[in-house]
Amino acid sequence: MNGSAAPSPGFLSKTRGCGVLCHITSLPSPFGCGDLGPGAYRFAALAASGGQAFWQVLPLNPTEPGLGNSPYASPSAFAGSPLLISPELLAADGLLDSDDLCPLPPFPDDRVDYPSVIAHRAPLLDRAAARLLASPPPAYFAFAGDDGAAWLDDHCLFVACREHSGGRPWHEWPDDLRLRDPEALCRAREAFAVRYDRERALQFLFFDQWMRLRRHCAGLGVRLIGDLPIYVPYDSADAWAHPDLFRLDEDRRPAFVAGVPPDYFSTEGQRWGNPVYRWDEHRRTGYAWWLARFRHLARLFDVVRVDHFCGFVEYWEIPASEPSARHGSWQPGPGLDLFARVRDALPGLALVAEDLGHVTPAVEALRDALGLPGMRVLLFGFGPEMASSPHAPHNHDRASVLYLGTHDNPTARGWFEEASDEERTRLARYLGRPIEADTVADALVRLCLQSVARTAIISLQDHLGLGPGARMNLPGTPFGNWEWRCPPDLLSPGLAAHLADLASIYGRTAPPSPGGDPIVPEPTPT
Fold first, then answer.
1. Is the pLDDT assigned to residue 129 strictly greater than 80?
2. Hey, which residues does 484 pair with through a beta bridge?
3. Residue 97 φ then ψ, to 5°
4. Is residue 339 included in any domain, yes or no?
5. Segment 436-467, tens digit of pLDDT
6. Average pLDDT over residues 385-409
């Protein structure tokens, strides 16, 4: 592959629009964690009536309590999270009885209590999977055969083997399974068939519910933005099934891990611990694993945000023996060689480059060669270099996607309450008026929507003016994140009307829905 890639089809290229950032787990649900059921349909309807063209979510992959329930640290780059499967839709589809849905534990409305949610949903999912497997629909066999049978088999076998081993990571399994001896894998499929089949059924149910929601959003004129994390954990189905694609030693343990070097924010840098890739091996295989990832996400979303885009140009590699990120080195990534192949294979796939952090001229050159929109984050625009900051509104460009803040930032109000006197003063000077904690979110939301950037994405928390307690993630803290939930009463017709008014004022109203009035699945009484 040589030469420059064709420009992106440009999902933002001609019209102004806006969207809302809200992960599925943050939605209201009587079952303690947002899911793909009626709450998601109601939220899609609210977004549509509020003039929103886009709904952005975080990765939908399974999460792990031991990894802080982060959707960016999943044991599978392809699988969906069973916690997002809606019990109400399972009952509506005849896979649960209405009596199965009650009584309910006293789940909190404003956060996800993951241990309680997992404990409550596990038997419900067991019953639904058993009923599905007793009489599988034709679509189940099509899913197992057509939707990437390789990843599905690897994931289900990984889950079954890990559970059989008592939860131990794959590098502690017996050698024949750790090294994936073909005969051992066949024996494991037979010996652990019950758990294997249950996981395959859950994956079918997840993707069936997701695709139904996606079709519903398309009918409302709301486009879905997903996320592609650059790295996967070492204890993942991907590293177990494809060890040659990662920089592992002769014992299949990480030789080098990913992170970022020391900077203004951290004197030690950040040691993420994910194994880095053997890009030479990916190149030799024609980037088959990456093309499968992009193809998979293209089925699920209208737009994909490429996390840590800078790392595809140059990445920080740390010897696994090093306890911090201080002693690493920059290594070249695949750059255009990978993304040109992605564009050739999926010419209609719209991408957004998360070009934050170590942004070099080479990163900008790759982004521009691909014709991808980059990102701007308004909360980054009020530092000491405000006049020249690319994140300050007067320096925005039309092609970028503007965020007030991402899932890694505080809310607007939280930022203001934690800000230094100098930062507050700079913001007041920029706005030309004093600002207070109870008005800062509205002021910054309006500043985003006024921007020349054609697309503005604003978190639900900031539209609601919520404070520090509504922050989704604090980088560098392993636990206590990804828990925020929106109480049901805050998703009101008044909020939809307010969003629609803002979209109208700033010329960002989405076109009328092509699908008529929204139809929200009726929940089974609980």
1. yes
2. 111
3. -95, 155
4. yes
5. 999 999 999 999 999 999 999 999 999 999 99
6. 96
Residue 460 vs residues 31, 165, 240: alpha-carbon distances, Å: 21, 41, 37
Residue 356's nearest CA partner among 311, 289, 392 is: 311
The answer to whether the bond into 103 is cis (omega within 30° of 0) is yes
| CA angle in degrees (0–180, nearest 5) for 439-440-442 | 70
Q: Which two tokens stand for residue 198?
A: 């249950």
Is the Cα torsion angle 332, 338, 343, 349 positive or negative in sign?
A: negative
Instruction: Identify which of 420, 423, 435 has the alpha carbon closest to the alpha carbon of residue 378.
Output: 423
- Measured on CA atoms in the order 58, 62, 66, 69, is the torsion positive or negative? positive
Amino acid at 151: W
What's the rounded Cα separation, in Å, for the pair 464 and 366?
37
Neighbours of 375 (CB within 10 A): 22
* Number of folded domains that form the chain: 1
CA distance 62 to 152: 13
- Residue 395 resides in a domain: no
Residue 260 lies in domain: 242-281+304-371
Q: Rounded to whole angstroms, what are the CA distances from 298 to 195, 216, 225?
A: 29, 17, 10
Q: What angle do CA 367, 58, 38 make, to 5 degrees?
A: 140
Q: Which residues contact 149 (CB under 8 A, 6 or more apart)?
A: none
Which residues form the catalytic set? 307, 354, 408
Other CB atoms within a 10 A radius of the CB of residue 511 amount to 10
Using the structure block, give the residue that is written with the tokens 């009307």. Answer: 497
Rounded distance, CA 293 to CA 282, Å?
13
Query: In this structure, which amino acid lies at residue 253?
Result: R
Report if residue 270 sits inside a domain.
Answer: yes
Distance CA 275, CA 245 (A): 10
The whole-angstrom separation of Cα 84 and Cα 67 is 18
pTM of structure:
0.94
Residue 341 lies in a domain: yes
Spatial strand order of the sheet with 256-260 comes to 270-275, 256-260, 314-319, 329-332
Cα–Cα distance, 255 to 171 (Å, whole number): 14
What is the amino acid identity at position 61?
N
